[in-house]
Amino acid sequence: MTVEAHKETRGFQTEIKQLLNLMIHSLYSNKEIFLRELVSNASDAADKLRFAALSDDALYEGDAELKIWVELNSEAKTVTIRDNGIGMSRDEVVENIGTIAKSGTQAFFKSLTGDEAKDSQLIGQFGVGFYSSFIVADKVTLITRKAGLEKSHGVRWESAGDGEFSIENVERDSHGTEVILHLRDGEEEFTQDYRVQSIIKKYSDHIAFPIILPKINTDEETKEITVENETINSAKALWMRGKNEISEEEYQEFYKHVSHDFDAPLTWMHNKVEGTQEYTSLLYIPARAPFDLWDRRNRHGVKLYVRRVFIMDDDEHLLPPYLRFIRGVIDSNDLPLNVSREILQNNKQIDTIRGGTVKKILSSLESMAKNDAEKYQTFWKEFGRVFKEGVVDDTSNKERIAKLLRFSSTHDSKEEPEISLENYVSRMQEGQDKIFYITADNFAGALSSPHLEIFRKKGIEVLLLTDQVDEWLVMHLTEFDGKQLQSVTKGDLDLTNLESEEEKQEAEKAKEEVQPLVERIQTALTEKVKEVQVTHRLTSSPACLVADAHGMDASLERLLKQAGQEIPDSKPVMEINPTHPLITKLKDVSDDDKFKDWAFILFDQALLSEGGQLEDPSAFVSRINQMLVQ
Ligand code: ADP
To answer: Residue 618 phi/psi, 5° resolution?
Structure first.
């Protein structure tokens, strides 16, 4: 490798400039968190070195006691956070400190409103890590050397946070990183022992490596200077401590460290498991979905430790994808220290750990749903859409997952999904043997669908499914509690056991009377529909379209077409409402051309009312106009 010793000055990625300004303003009231962020980075760096040294002891360079030092200098007005962790190469410094690699960065910037109060909430969610130094410093110097590289491969990076940084190679004896903050005027408090000590106690006590705050004592008489190296944190893996020894605040601070989230978590579960597999897990459900939640390759995932040694951030083996929002650590006593991603792939021990962990998470959600409905609502709002994937992904827990699902429904017509399948079943009408639902592109569309008319009339609840994943969900969840899930827009809706004898007779009579008309409409619309039928679905609309019992829902078809998939055109069934005035009037239209126009208008209307798109909108308009003129 050649060393680029030359000093160069580079510009930050544009987003970083924006981020720094926003951050300095919005986090100022909580400025002390810069220490937490830098200590957290140092701890990660120590974890990484310990892992790398498992296969190459020489990386320790004879210095295997990993520690973090926080050094204060009130004369120079500096705070230095130093570690003997993994360190960084020149390229890594440029990559990690000059750019934001986070997926979702673009989305983050788009979501900014310019309103400081709102944006500052967002920035906490985004997490700013290293850059938080600029809240209190007007110049930051980072000196580092990657463990295992030669001394000449040290790197010095410096920036005043004004959009540029300089970088050059320097000699550096020890591996690891030090970050020197040159404090802004007015920030002198951060050079005071007691202040810094209390901040570290508050935010970083859980860090598993010793944090040392050297105290410099000058003997009054001899003027002799002595340094006292005091470890100021517990320096013990938090998850190994007993539950009753850990305070709420400690749990929360640990969450912020492992998740890189600034906000407190929604809840956590801490379990020690003994048996064939011995492991401890401390897992958190965040209070808010991160920007990259939709990315199934999530960056953080859960941290895997083996006997207190950090092994890796795992985003695919320890938990199934539908639980990818979970953060925290799993520490195994049985896995080998040299466990690799390949080993994780097909490993019985991992399967056992994953199975057990999923069950713990599901029970925690179950008890939240039962005991704290409001909290569960928050969970559902943030993660429900991802969690639903579980019905498809995790067949072994399908029933438990199904009970945790929440939907909107015609029962309360609220857009927030709050109705469980159990709620639904408990309210089913006498004679009702199915769980009815409608899928639509959006809530308003679902709620105003003509397909719901008969259900309203009969007081039967219908679930309103408006997430894209819902289409897949109902393909896999065909039954709950022995009751079939049935789309109200599909197939022959058999509601006869919900009808009175009188209603049945009336319907039969209306059907007979209108039969000749049905045949005539069918002839007029042969190219458009598979069949025309008399409906029981409608009370106030003249017609609606129904998918084949085994065919695709119209909304799924639209979804797939939007996604660019080739879908064979399937003709819907059109159902007409024999009591609607438009239909009764139609009987008197003897002119065949005119009749055909009416039939087309009926069809197009029905299509429009389900949120479909007309094939030929101008033909529709001209037919309507003609009709109005007449
Ligand atoms: P985050 O910690 O959320 O990834 P940061 O901006 O704090 O974001 O840090 C960016 C990256 O810089 C880290 O992911 C890490 O790779 C690197 N880094 C930061 N501090 C250190 C350190 N003390 N030692 C080694 N690498 C570091």
So the answer is: -70, -30
**Which residue, among 294, 77, 293, has the nearest Cα to 185 in the 3D structure?**
77
Q: What pLDDT is attached to residue 5?
A: 67
**Token pair belonging to 503:** 């209603």
Pocket lined around ligand 1, Cβ cut-off 6 Å:
37, 41-42, 45, 83, 85-88, 96-97, 127, 129-130, 177, 260
The answer to whether 70 touches 109, Cβ cutoff 8 Å, is: no
Ligand 1 mutation pick, 40, 130, 298, max ligand atoms within 8 A of CB: 130
d(CA 428, CA 450): 21
pTM > 0.85: no
8-state DSSP, 589? -
pLDDT of residue 565: 73
Pocket test for ligand 1, best of 13, 34, 41, 84 (most atoms within 8 A of CB): 41
Residue 145 has pLDDT above 50, yes or no: yes
Say if residues 486 and 434 touch (Cβ distance below 8 Å).
yes
Q: For residue 87, how many other CB atoms are within 10 A of its CB?
A: 28
Euclidean distance between CA atoms 480 and 428, whole angstroms: 13
- pLDDT over 90 percentage in the chain: 53
Alpha-carbon gap, residue 611 to 490, rounded angstroms? 16
> Which residue has its alpha carbon closest to ligand 1 atom 12?
96
